[in-house]
Design brief:
alpha/beta; Spore Coat Polysaccharide Biosynthesis Protein SpsA, Chain A; 2 domains; five-stranded mixed sheet; 12 strands; 38% helix; 16% strand; globular; Glyco_trans_2-like
């Protein structure tokens, strides 16, 4: 019996996973065709979904902050050790959403934090709000016209660009254009010298018609989709910048982000890569860096939480940073051989890159002053397409574990 099968059995034997309830509460699970328990282990827990009416994930993590810090699946932790240790599940009769752990007196220094705390008593997380002010939204009917308005500043005749921004894409022309407008808006006149490179992974929409005419945009194209890692590798070979910023085409960059990332890594011999605070278009935190558990499962630090909470607003070392927005030196990236193609077409190549940097004794650093908005998995499908995506995740997780299991085990033993 494999490790994952043992985890499924532990969840089943806990008596706290209710298949019927889970399917009724989250109808999209049925569309994936996955077994509900396997879906919960792979996807549901990461999305803060409860396994049944008798176990509240947020309540358990509130009552047991060491479990939250470890990144372990809450129900799996309870089944393995929590029950024997008489751990409190944390929920109270009639209480569905307990208040999360606060941040002390810092949260009382402005009315907005107080209001967020009151809301958290009812919701255990900030309510979805408006998109951040720096975000660009293009009306679908005006895509072609707006593309004609876009231009990037020319590079000076002397010297190479300091940063090459690499944006791989496959269809989703609207998101790509919104990303490019955000980059244009973030570039200060006379500021950081940047080149912008879009790598079209065989798009079948208007991408190849609308983007090549944009002044001072480097446009590269493959006839077929070669995957996230290989596309970035090819773009990096063409790039001339001292630093590379890998940026998803469904992400948008805030003004000042490039400056903050460069300030953190420039002149440092110990930092291998830096990443920004990643927020959703509902205004909630998506990622303040990530850490890995011993099973090769990443946890997005702060997912769904308040972006202004003090615990997410100081620079710190993390296990890994999402390839949705990651900056590092070009020479280091090329010396490592780029993203490993064994993970193509997608998933875990960014995590693997961070672990290879760590193996060289370099740090992965989260920089909260840099901010990027990201549409999480906008291209994910349903049904068979979603099953294919989950199959890729499973395959690449196993490849990642085979390579890094020895490094993961002691890392997580310390956290426990």
């Amino acid at each position: 019996m494999g490790k994952f099968d043992k985890e499924v059995r532990l969840i089943e034997e806990s008596g706290l996973f209710d298949r019927s309830w889970y399917l009724a509460e989250y109808p999209d699970v049925k569309e994936t065709g996955m077994d509900p328990i396997r879906h919960y282990l792979w996807v549901g827990a990461a999305l803060w979904r409860n396994p049944g009416p008798e176990f509240d994930i947020r309540a358990y993590l509130q009552a047991n902050p060491d479990v939250k810090e470890s990144g372990t699946n809450p129900l799996l932790h309870y089944a393995m050790t929590g029950k024997a240790e008489n751990r409190s599940i944390g929920s109270l009769p009639g209480t569905e959403n307990p208040r999360p752990i606060g941040d002390g007196v810092m949260e009382w220094r402005n009315d907005e934090s107080i209001q967020a705390g009151i809301c958290a008593r009812e919701e255990a997380a900030p309510s979805p709000g408006d998109a951040p002010a720096f975000c660009v939204s293009l009306p679908g009917e005006a895509i072609a016209a707006r593309a004609g308005e876009l231009a990037f500043p020319p590079l000076p005749d002397y010297g190479a660009p300091e940063v090459s921004i690499l944006i791989p894409c496959f269809n989703e022309i609207r998101y790509t254009l919104e990303c490019l407008f955000s980059v244009r808006n973030a570039l200060e006149p006379g500021g950081i010298r940047c080149e912008v490179i879009v790598f079209d992974n065989g798009s079948t929409d208007e991408t190849s018609r609308l983007l090549p005419p944009i002044p001072n945009l480097v446009f590269l194209r493959e006839k077929k989709n070669i995957g996230f890692g290989p596309a970035n590798n090819k773009a990096a070979e063409v790039a001339r910048g001292e630093y590379l910023l890998f940026l998803n085409n469904d992400a948008q960059i805030a003004p000042g982000t490039l400056e903050a990332l460069l300030a953190a890594i420039r002149n440092s011999d110990v930092i291998g890569a830096v990443g920004p605070k990643v927020i959703g278009f509902d205004g909630r935190l998506q990622e303040a860096g990530s850490h890995m558990d011993a099973n090769g499962m990443p946890t997005l630090i702060g997912f769904g939480q308040d972006t202004q909470a003090p615990r997410f607003n100081y620079r710190r070392e993390v296990d890994c940073i999402s390839g949705a927005a990651l900056l590092m030196r070009r020479d280091r990236f090329l010396a490592l051989g780029g993203f490993d193609p064994i993970y193509a077409p997608a998933y875990y190549e960014d995590t693997d890159l961070c672990f290879r940097l760590r193996e060289k004794g370099l740090q992965i650093v989260y920089v909260p002053d840099a901010v990027v908005a990201h549409h999480l998995s906008v291209t994910s499908g349903k049904g068979k397409q979603d099953q294919s995506r989950l199959a890729l995740l499973t395959r690449n997780r196993q490849r990642f574990l085979q390579r890094w299991r020895r490094q993961l085990l002691p890392l997580n033993a310390i956290r426990r």
